[in-house]
Automatic annotation (TrEMBL), chain B:
High-level lineage: Bacteria, Pseudomonadati, Pseudomonadota, Alphaproteobacteria, Hyphomicrobiales
Gene that this sequence comes from: dppB_1
SUPFAM superfamilies given in the database record: MetI-like (SSF161098)
Membrane topology: Multi-pass membrane protein
Key words, A-Z: Cell membrane, Membrane, Transmembrane, Transmembrane helix, Transport
Gene3D superfamilies the UniProt entry points to: MetI-like
Species of provenance: Methylobrevis pamukkalensis
Protein name: Dipeptide transport system permease protein DppB
Homology family: Belongs to the binding-protein-dependent transport system permease family.
GO CC term, one of those recorded: plasma membrane
Compartments (UniProt record): Cell membrane
Ranges of residues in domain ABC transmembrane type-1: 95-326
InterPro entries linked to this entry: BPD_transp_1_N, MetI-like, MetI-like_sf
Amino acid sequence: MTATPTSLPAEKAATGLLAHARHIVTENPVTGLSFGLFILFLLAGLVGPHVVPYDPLASDTAAALAPPSAAHWFGTDQLGRDIFSRVVVATRLDMTIAIASVALVFVVGGLAGLAAGYFGGWTDQVVGRICDTIMAFPLFVLAMGIVAALGNTVTNIVLATAIVNFPLYARVARAEANVRRDAGFVQAARLCGNGEWRILLGQIMPNTLPIMMVQVSLTMGYAILNAAGLSFIGLGVRPPTPEWGIMVAEGAAFIVSGEWWIAFFPGVTLMLAVFCFNLLGDGLRDLVDPQRRT
Amino acid sequence: MLGKILKRLGTVVPSLIGVVIVTFLLTRVMPGDPAAYFAGPAATPEAIEEIRRSLGLDRPLLEQFLAYVVDLAQGDLGTSLTTGLPVMHEITTRLPASAELTLLGLIVSMAIALPLGVLAAVRQGSWIDHLSRVIATAGVSLPVFFTGLLLVYVFYFILGWAPAPMGRLDFFFSDPERVTGFFLIDSLLMGDLELFRAAFSQIWLPALTLGIFSLAPITRMTRASMLAVLASDFVRTARANGLPPGKVVITYAFRNALLPIITTLGMVFSFLLGANVLVEKVFAWPGIGSYAVEALIASDFAPVQGFVLAMAILYVLLNLLIDILYGVIDPRVRIEA
């Protein structure tokens, strides 16, 4: 770790942050690359269904199991559906599941953790006990159990992914709120007559946001993996809906006979998405918390 | 030491109670009416009511929970609707297959990750350090079912080094006599080398898949922990006293670096037990993971519940074992107790 002079004037703090962000993106080409990938996935999710060359659900038995070619970049599957189109269209569903579950746990886990760290006492006890109980399970196994119990739907995949991530968010938020509960600005706010919840949400919560945002991008990759894993074993998304995990599962039967492209392309896309979010998380952490740089 | 172990055993109790409550609650939130499900589509309301009474579903929740705990204590996890066999029986007969695979996966992963992490720390900034960093980042991004399929394609379809991913043994062989339930060990106990080779040829690919999956956290932790230890005073002193580098690294540094590595094993097991389910599905491995997946697809809840409970108990016990191991290895922990 090299110490760089960062004595920027206060009024330039905003531009300083931008410059710092640019520095991080350009200094480490990997972070830059992951940012580019992120934009690509975002675009695929937003406009993907409108720009793909084929209908992701249309089968064409004449062209079934065709290897990658100029007409079908990623080849076709056993029903002759274009894999490239299916992979691109699936981006929206996969991203929606991941973003929805992360957003849910960000709000619920974050608030629970903030309350636990700020109020202490029985709130802390209850939240801590819930975290311990969730952590007592292997996480993927618990997610399987939750989806099996609640019912085999996409909403429940979101819910299950959010639940298994709950301890991660609650613990980070708790630690962040705990160190600030008696900080000077909190005491000042209390002296001004603010209510406890107002202090918690107005004064403490904004200060925990940077660290929580890092947590979001670090767990996003895991959320995508978790959702794809669940649909790989046949939970949640149902065929013929294009989704990366289920496409890999469909291609699995053809791997042993050499038709590798059916499972390969959705799998690689899934891997790239997770990779992108993990690297982005590392980059974001460098930005927010330079002391933890590795 | 014994007192400490007993104290640690005491902390297992709340975890187990939490686990049992959660698995019980999972059945209560189950969609639909279990009584109607058991009765079948053609049942009259009276018949459903009758089944509800016989299943005890009309009693208060607390009473049902007590009945569940009593059943558990007697080793009764319910009966599978699809196979008609007790869940407990299925899980105990299938557990060795999963355990053998998971343990071998962990051994494979340690055999690669520990030397790699140590070398990365000793030669910081060299190509091996970069390699370990790439593995650590790429490893956590790889979906384990996808790695498995890639390995099957390369080693079965292209190279032909591995048999088809169809379970623990080829059809030509019959299972070895059950002693430990681990085919590799049982076949050796029988002195049947042919059988051992057959079992090994089936297991090495799924074990490698699991190994690659858990490579990342172990490598990363080994490297970080070795770096911290190598920078410490006693290593500097050992070097200054002219001890050979190998002795400094292995005897002085590595033994101390092991402690944080063992702590991360708890997290690694959480991932491994989950990944095991996916790997079992890819390789048609007859373990408890594929049992649970088959039941999930058939909406057969008792096996899933039994599986979740078994995995959670296993995980709690593994964490206990890791903590005890930690105390055995690190004398300082013993003194503090």
